[in-house]
Amino acid sequence: MATVKIKRVYDAADKQDGVRILVDRLWPRGVKKETAHLDEWMKEVAPSTELRKWFNHEAPHWDEFRLRYIQELHQNHAANALLELVRKHKTVTLLYAARNEKHNHALVLKEFIDEMLK
Hints:
Elements: E1 3-8, E2 19-22, E3 40-41, H1 49-55, H2 62-74, H3 77-87, E4 91-96, H4 105-116
Parallel strand pairs: 1-4, 2-3, 2-4
């Protein structure tokens, strides 16, 4: 089974990252495409614009955001494509831009992937 990690896109790339996948719908501010060291940009697996705006990385919304995002992922064809990609590699790192390391969609996405690959 693949190891799935998460990391801020602003952190330096490392050989231990394996396949690096940006999972944000919007391109991160201040990051040049040439220096991002991405293997894929899968913006379709990010939360919908409506859900992202509603959540706004506010901790009181976290539990509800998590539930809503998981529901979206179960109905999202791009999530299936991501699962297939993860299955093909030993290590995958999901990259995100959010400042909040405890309340962000990449945490939920990793949880979803781990659960689906059991």
